[in-house]
Design a protein that fits this description.
mainly beta, five-stranded mixed β-sheet, 2,3-Dihydroxybiphenyl 1,2-Dioxygenase, domain 1, 5 strands
């Protein structure tokens, strides 16, 4: 068994209304707002960041931290 597990840095999801969903998360959960604007907001939780983006931005995704990313052909 490995000693260290990989880390998911953040999850990004498309939403129809960033400001209303941002307000919901701030009221419902203990999190900090790292960034807030009309096309993207970033919420920081204890173990992960959550990006809220408008529907015309990039698709939903999650980002995994990898110390060997520079060795992956598609990323170099």
């Amino acid at each position: 068994m490995r000693n260290i597990l990989s880390i998911i840095d953040h999850v990004s999801i498309q939403v129809e209304n960033i400001s209303s969903l941002l307000e919901y998360y701030k009221k419902r959960f203990d999190c900090d707002v790292l960034l807030e604007n009309q096309i993207c907001s970033v919420l920081m939780f204890n173990n992960i960041n959550l990006d809220l983006v408008t529907l015309d931005q990039h698709p939903n995704y999650f980002a995994i931290m990898d110390k060997n990313a520079s060795k992956i052909p598609i990323l170099s």
